[in-house]
Specification:
594 residues; binds 2-acetamido-2-deoxy-beta-D-glucopyranose; hydrolase; PNGase_A
C-alpha cells in the first residue's frame, strides 16, 4: 500500500524560529485559581510568534452534555479575497470545566464534509483545564478559499453514562504571509502570494468538475507555498468521502463485516489522486493492540467484549478491490492506561490525531472513465467501534492526461501464534504487506515515469501472566515508502525514501493498586537522494506510575524527548519531565546534536 502520514512528514519541513517558552503551570500567589494548561510535545509552527495578516473567528460554542452529542454548524465564507497569505493555520482552543471523570472526548472539524482536524480532549483538572491546538491547514487551500460553505464541529463523549463537563470551544483560521520556511524540497521558494481565485461555490466547483471536467477555480501552482510528498502542491479540488449525520461526518464502523462506501466520479483530466484517511478507535477497540483473541475469552468463559486479537488494519477499496491499507499509529487518549500519565502533557498525537495518505494515482487508469466508482472503508478484525472518513485530494491538468499504469495491489502475509493455558498466555501476530506500482503520466509537464513501492511490517506480542492480571505488550509498526521518478531519457528526477517506526511497550499489573508503564515512540525519516536532503524526527515517551483500582489516586511520571533535524542546519529538540502532574523540567534547544 501507499499510505503516507502527512502529519509526520510536514513537520520535517518546518524550520525553527523562536525558542519555546517553558510551560509554567505554577500556582499564583493570589487566591485566584488558575486553570491548568495541557499541551502536546510537538514541533512549534513557524507562524506561532507572528501576527497573522488576517484571521477569522468562526465559532465560539459551549458544549454541554457531550454524551453522544451532535455537531454544531456555522456558515463559512473565505476572508481571503481581501488578504495576502501563504500559510493557513487552524486554531482550536478549548476551556474545560467538569467533574473528575476519566472519560475521553473525541472531536472533529469539517468544512463541507472535508475533515481538517481530529482531536481528543484532555483530562479534567481541579481548577479547570485549557489547551490550544494549532495545525497547518495550507494543503486544504482549495477548500478554505471558497465561499458559502459550512464549518462543523463535533465534540462528544462516547460513554454509557452522561458526562457533566462543560467545554468552551473557539475555532479560528489564522492566515500568514511572509512565512519563511522551506516547505519544498525542490525549490527554496517561499514568501507570500495572494491567491487571486475566481470566487466560486464549492458545490459549483464539484458540479463543474463532474459535468464538464473543468475546474474553473484551479489554484496556480506557483502561487501557494510548496509542501511535500504527496502534497508537493495543494490539491486543486478536495472531495469529501464522508457521511453527514447528526453526530459528525465520520462513518461509524462496528465490526469487520461493515463496509461503508461513497461514490465518486473522477474526471479524465485528473493526473494525481491522494486519499487522506482520518481514523480513531473507541469502545472495545480503544486498545485494539492489547485485545486477546476470542479463543482465549471463550475458553476462559470471560465476560469480555474486547476480543478479536490485536491486529487491526483499515482497508480502502475501489469497487470492492483492495487499493490501500493503514495500520494506524496507536494514539493513547487522555483516559488511557493510566489517566495520571497525561496530565498536563498528553500522549503522542492525542491533540492532533494523524491522518494517513494513500496515493491512488496508480489507480487512475481504473478511475478515469468518467463513471461512478465506489470507495469503501472497512476495518480488518475490527470491533466496536471505529470512526473513519477521508478526503480525496485531486490534481487536475488543463490538457488531457494519459495515464498508463501498472500496479500490484497490496499483498499480505499474516501469522498468528497463540499459546495459552487458563488465563496466562502469549499471543503473537506478524503482518507483512507490500505493494508497488509503475506509472507513466503524460501531462503538460511532459512524460514522467514513477515507481512507488511500499512495505509495512507489523509485529505484536502480548503476554498475559499471573492469572491474567499482568499484561505485557511489545509492538512495532514499520513502513517504508520509496518513490522514484525518471524522465523519458531514463534520468532520475527524484528519489524519495520515507521510513516510519512506531514502537510501543505497555505493562499493566492489576491489583488493588494497578502498576503501569508506557514506552512509545514515533520516528520518521525522509530522504531525497537527488536533492541530497535528509530529515529526521524522533519522539519518545516513557511513563511509569500506578493508580488505585478504585478512585483516582496514584503516582505518575512522564518523560518525553523530541528532536528534529531538517538536514540543512535547522534543528529543534525539547525534553519534558513531569512528575506527579508537575512539569519539573522543560528544555528546548535549537542546536543540532552532532
Ligand atoms: C496572579 O493573578 C493575578 C490576578 O489574576 C495577576 O494579576 C498576577 O499577575 C498573577 N501573578 C502571577 C505570578 O502569575
Ligand atoms: C485569600 O484568601 C484569604 C482567606 O480566604 C483572604 O483573607 C485573602 O484576602 C485572599 N487574598 C486575595 C489576594 O484574594
Ligand atoms: C488550584 O488552585 C488552587 C488555589 O489557587 C491551588 O492551590 C491549586 O494548586 C490549584 N490546582 C492545580 C492543579 O493547579
Ligand atoms: C467569540 O468570542 C470572542 C471573544 O469573546 C469574540 O471576539 C468573537 O467575536 C466571538 N466570535 C463569534 C463567531 O461569535
Ligand atoms: C444528555 O443527552 C442525553 C442523550 O442525548 C440525554 O439522554 C440526557 O437526558 C441528557 N442529559 C441532560 C442532563 O440533559
Ligand atoms: C447560512 O447560510 C444559509 C444559506 O446561505 C442561510 O440561509 C443562513 O441564514 C445562514 N446562517 C447564518 C447564521 O448566517
Ligand atoms: C452513547 O453511544 C454509545 C456507543 O454508541 C452507547 O454505547 C451508549 O449507550 C450511548 N450513551 C447514551 C447515554 O446514550
Ligand atoms: C464558557 O462560556 C460560557 C458562556 O457561553 C461562560 O458563561 C463560561 O464562563 C465559559 N467558561 C469558561 C471556562 O470560560
Ligand atoms: C454566496 O451566497 C450569497 C447569499 O446566498 C450569494 O449572494 C453569493 O452570490 C454566493 N456566493 C457565491 C460565490 O456563490
Ligand atoms: C453517480 O453517483 C451520483 C451520486 O452518488 C448519482 O447521483 C449519479 O446518478 C450516479 N451516476 C451514475 C451514472 O450512476
Ligand atoms: C506494584 O508495584 C509495587 C511496588 O513495586 C509492588 O509492591 C506491588 O506488588 C505491585 N503491584 C502489582 C499488582 O504488581
Ligand atoms: C523509562 O524510565 C524508567 C524509569 O525512569 C527506566 O528504568 C527505563 O529504562 C526507561 N525506559 C526507556 C526505554 O527509556
Amino acid at each position: 500500500m501507499n499510505a503516507v502520514n502527512l502529519l509526520l512528514i510536514l513537520p520535517l519541513f518546518f524550520t525553527i524560529t523562536l525558542p519555546h517558552s517553558v510551560n509554567s503551570v505554577k500556582q499564583n500567589s493570589s487566591n485566584e485559581t488558575i486553570p491548568q494548561h495541557f499541551f502536546e510535545v510537538t514541533l512549534p509552527l513557524p507562524t506561532d510568534n507572528i501576527t497573522p495578516s488576517c484571521s477569522v473567528n468562526l465559532l465560539n460554542h459551549t458544549f454541554t452534555n457531550t454524551t453522544n452529542s451532535s455537531s454544531v454548524t456555522v456558515n463559512y465564507t473565505t476572508p481571503l479575497d481581501k488578504c495576502h497569505w501563504s500559510v493557513a493555520v487552524l486554531d482550536f482552543k478549548v476551556k474545560y470545566n467538569g467533574e473528575q471523570d476519566t472519560s475521553n472526548g473525541i472531536a472533529g472539524v469539517w468544512i463541507n464534509g472535508v475533515e481538517l482536524l481530529r482531536t481528543t480532549t484532555a483530562q479534567p483538572s481541579e481548577n479547570g483545564s485549557f489547551w490550544n491546538i494549532r495545525k497547518d491547514v495550507s494543503k486544504y487551500s482549495s477548500i478554505i478559499t471558497h465561499h458559502n460553505l459550512t464549518l462543523s464541529v463535533v465534540l462528544q463523549n462516547l460513554m454509557k453514562h452522561d458526562v457533566n463537563g462543560v467545554y468552551n470551544v473557539s475555532v479560528s483560521f489564522l492566515f500568514y504571509s511572509d512565512v519563511k520556511f522551506p516547505l519544498s524540497l525542490h525549490s527554496g521558494e517561499s514568501g507570500s502570494h495572494s491567491l487571486n481565485r475566481k470566487l466560486m461555490s464549492f458545490e459549483n466547483d464539484i458540479k463543474n468538475y463532474i459535468k464538464n471536467c473543468e475546474n474553473e477555480d484551479k489554484l496556480g501552482f506557483d502561487r501557494v507555498i510548496k509542501s511535500t510528498y504527496p502534497y508537493d502542491t495543494p490539491a486543486d479540488l478536495i472531495i469529501p468521502l464522508s457521511e453527514a449525520s447528526d453526530d459528525g461526518f465520520w462513518f461509524k464502523i462496528h465490526d469487520e463485516s461493515e463496509i461503508r462506501t461513497k461514490n465518486v466520479r473522477i474526471c479524465p483530466k485528473t493526473y494525481k489522486a491522494v486519499l487522506e484517511l482520518y481514523v480513531s478507535f473507541h469502545g472495545d477497540d480503544e486498545f485494539w493492540y492489547m485485545n486477546p483473541p476470542d479463543s482465549y475469552i471463550k475458553s476462559n468463559d470471560l465476560p469480555f467484549t474486547n476480543g478479536k486479537g490485536s491486529y487491526r488494519e483499515v482497508l480502502v477499496t475501489i469497487d470492492g478491490k483492495l487499493a490501500g491499507t493503514v495500520i494506524p499509529f496507536p494514539v493513547i487518549y487522555s483516559g488511557g492506561i493510566n489517566p495520571l500519565f497525561w496530565k498536563p502533557v498528553v500522549s503522542i498525537g492525542a491533540f492532533d490525531i494523524p491522518s494517513y495518505d494513500i496515493d491512488l494515482t496508480s489507480y487512475l487508469g481504473l478511475l478515469l472513465d468518467n463513471r461512478n466508482h465506489s470507495i469503501g472503508f472497512q476495518v480488518a478484525d475490527g470491533g466496536s467501534f471505529w470512526l473513519v472518513d477521508a478526503n480525496m485530494h485531486l490534481w487536475i491538468d488543463d490538457t488531457n492526461v494519459q495515464a498508463i499504469v501498472e500496479y500490484e495491489p497490496p499483498s499480505m502475509e499474516i501469522e498468528h501464534d497463540y499459546e495459552f493455558e487458563g488465563l496466562d498466555g502469549t499471543f503473537e501476530t506478524e503482518v507483512e504487506r507490500s505493494m508497488s506500482s509503475i506509472r507513466m503520466i503524460q501531462s503538460s509537464k511532459g512524460i514522467l515515469k514513477t515507481k512507488v513501492t511500499e512495505e509495512i511490517k507489523f509485529k505484536n506480542k502480548l503476554k498475559f501472566k499471573d492469572d491474567g492480571t499482568r499484561k505485557e505488550l511489545e509492538q512495532k509498526i514499520k513502513t517504508k515508502t520509496k518513490v522514484k521518478t525518471t524522465d523519458t531519457k531514463g534520468h532520475s528526477v527524484g528519489e524519495i525514501v520515507i521510513e516510519k517506526t512506531y514502537p510501543l511497550k505497555i505493562t499493566i499489573a492489576s491489583g488493588s493498586r494497578v502498576n503501569t508503564t508506557v514506552v512509545q515512540g514515533r520516528s520518521v525519516s525522509f530522504s531525497d537522494e537527488v536533492a541530497s536532503i535528509s530529515r529526521v524526527l524522533n519522539h519518545d515517551l516513557n511513563c511509569t506510575g500506578w493508580i488505585m483500582a478504585k478512585g483516582n489516586s496514584g503516582f505518575a511520571e512522564n518523560h518525553q524527548s523530541y528532536s528534529y533535524d531538517d538536514g540543512e542546519g535547522g534543528c529543534y529538540s525539547r525534553t519534558v519531565d513531569v512528575v506527579k502532574g508537575d512539569v519539573i523540567a522543560d528544555e528546548t534547544t535549537s542546536n543540532c546534536v552532532k
